[in-house]
Specification:
The complex is a heterodimer of chains A (257) and B (67).
Chain A: E1 2-3, E2 6-7, E3 12-15, H1 22-32, E4 36-43, H2 53-59, E5 63-66, H3 74-88, E6 92-95, H4 108-120, E7 124-129, H5 133-141, E8 148-149, H6 163-172, E9 178-180, H7 186-194, E10 199-202, H8 204-207, H9 212-232
Parallel strand pairs in A: 3-4, 3-10, 4-5, 6-7, 7-8, 9-10
Antiparallel strand pairs in A: 1-2
Helix pairs in contact in A: 1-9, 3-4, 5-6, 7-9
Chain B: E1 2-5, E2 8-11, H1 18-25, E3 33-37, E4 40-41, E5 57-65
Parallel strand pairs in B: 1-5
Antiparallel strand pairs in B: 1-2, 3-4, 3-5
The chains are: A alpha/beta (257), B mainly beta (67).
Chain lengths: 257, 67
């Protein structure tokens, strides 16, 4: 996959949120074979000595993709992106601008404004977006390096609520489409890839599984399976059966009722 | 002077720099740390030379697990 002007082997991008420990995070990252991983920025808290996920990410030699999680306005998101650029020495940003904390749906107006500004500021912008084909087109037209529609709300684990919207986004996009949010288990990731997504971004489904590393393996294999299935070209869905064994040369062995 | 650091009011000596504040919060200015002064990012190279004034609003951020 080519993303942000660089080739990548893996089509699974991993979020690091929600893991119960850095040990579980590390095991899952290894199992996922992901190359790109997201991190967030939060206030330094001197009352808690929390080891940094960066230690794990750097040790594994992975590419850090900072996010703007928790931002509600374009202004906050743009400032957070600039802070992330300083902290991680990267121009890449996963842009999240959410509208409320119940749905965590993106705020389309603020998202587009922030994307436009960050592209102008020289960022490689990867926006987390609604599964809205028109908004996806607008994000692409202002120069985003990918579009990342949600399958269902962050952490909901429902998979893809509206596969038609994902298909419409894939059909028109000339930048990579990365399904971000909503994956619950491996089959959801396979479905995303079968619909034509270029990659899947997954955090909660792995982090909150009983065995995160095992789920990371499952989702990695599902992404590969879905990608191969998409390339192979599936058969159409039909109402009636179509025999897979030819009726030619069938022996006459009795009367049909 | 009184400065707000990560949401808490702190009394600091005059001529305290951003570098001083960062050092008081993190063991070393490791990768993954960023600083905003009154909402604007301050590049690492300017922490040493940036002195705080009364009423300044400082945010010191670091990498955490997320998204």
């Amino acid at each position: 996959m080519n993303l942000g002007g660089r080739p990548w082997r893996s089509r699974l991008i991993m979020g690091t949120g929600g893991f119960r420990s850095l040990e579980e995070l590390e095991a899952a990252l290894v199992a996922s074979e992901a190359e790109i991983v997201t991190v967030a920025l939060r206030r330094v808290d001197t009352t808690r000595s929390t080891a940094s996920p960066l230690d794990v990410i750097d040790r594994l030699g992975l590419f850090v993709l900072p996010n703007t999680a928790g931002c509600y306005t374009a202004r906050e998101a743009v400032r957070t992106a600039h802070l992330a650029r300083e902290a991680f020495e990267t121009d890449w940003i996963k842009l999240e601008v959410i509208g409320d904390d119940r749905t965590l749906y993106p705020d389309a107006v603020e998202l587009l404004a922030a994307a436009e500004q960050l592209v102008a500021d020289g960022f490689v912008v990867l926006p987390y977006t609604n599964d809205d084909p028109i908004l996806a087109r607008r994000l692409e037209s202002v120069g985003c390096a990918a579009v990342m529609p949600l399958g269902s709300p962050i952490g909901a684990g429902r998979g893809i609520d509206n596969e038609h919207h994902i298909r419409l986004i894939v059909e028109q996009a000339e930048v990579p489409v990365i399904l971000d949010a909503g994956i619950g288990t491996a089959s959801d990731a396979a479905q995303a890839m079968e619909l034509g997504c270029d990659a899947v971004l997954c955090a909660s489904a792995i982090a909150r599984a009983d065995e995160p590393a095992r789920m990371a393996t499952a989702i990695r294999l599902a992404v590969e399976a879905g990608y191969e299935a998409r390339r192979a070209g599936r058969i159409p869905r039909r109402l009636h059966a179509e025999p897979s064994t030819s009726p030619l040369g069938l022996a006459e062995l009795g009367e049909h009722a | 002077m009184t400065v707000r650091i990560n949401g808490e009011q702190r009394e600091l000596e005059d001529a305290t720099t951003l570098a001083d504040v960062v050092q008081s919060l993190v063991e070393q200015a490791e990768r993954g740390v960023a600083v905003a002064l009154d909402g604007d990012v301050v590049p690492r190279s300017e922490w040493e030379s940036t002195t705080l004034s009364d009423g300044a609003h400082v945010e010191v951020l670091r990498a955490v697990q997320g998204g």
